[in-house]
Design a protein that fits this description.
The chain has nine helices and no strands. The chain is mostly helical.
């Protein structure tokens, strides 16, 4: 959408320049034609430089706001399989457990891990729904895979839960205020 609007804007500027140059030649016939030859590529070059600058990471960083960060919702694939979701839960729960057992756990790290654990628990609810929908009509081998995926996620969450201090999951600092 933005790229199309940019092209439209450049096209409008070029048309205005050509029309303006033609009107200028009608009013004052002494204007040389090579001015048009230099003016059009110069306009296109300036437009490309502006486009590159607007797409630069520095410009995007200046436009970033806290509202944009908090309002961002990552896109999940529409048809996420239970196995993929289970693997994701297990990986994140493993990272939570490792972060709290290997490194000195300060308050911020514990809170971040508690938030990650809550996200994993929410995904576990989604996983349970997906598996419950798929189990009744699934063949035997598929049912075994689904149950194994659920067990893998449950075990990983249980290990992460054991690593998190009990007071961290009761309420976060913001919820206590």
């Amino acid at each position: 959408m933005r790229r199309g609007m940019f092209k439209l804007g450049v096209a409008v500027v070029l048309v205005v320049e050509v029309v303006g140059f033609l009107l200028l030649t009608l009013v004052t016939p002494a204007v040389p034609a090579w001015v048009l030859v230099l003016l059009l590529p110069l306009t296109v070059g300036i437009a490309l430089v502006v486009r590159r600058e607007l797409d630069s990471p520095a410009h995007r960083l200046r436009r970033l706001s806290p509202e944009a960060i908090t309002g961002h919702r990552p896109r999940r694939p529409a048809a996420e399989s239970p196995e993929t979701l289970s693997r994701s839960i297990a990986e994140r729960a493993g990272e939570i457990r490792r972060a709290l057992t290997e490194l000195p756990a300060d308050e911020t790290r514990v809170e971040m891990c508690a938030l990650g654990y809550r996200a994993c628990a929410n995904d576990m609810i989604t996983l349970t729904h997906l598996i419950n929908e798929a189990l009744p009509n699934a063949p035997l081998l598929r049912r075994l895979k689904l149950r194994r995926a659920r067990k893998r996620a449950i075990d990983a969450l249980a290990e992460a839960r054991e690593a998190i201090p009990s007071e961290a999951l009761r309420a976060s600092r913001q919820e206590q205020q």
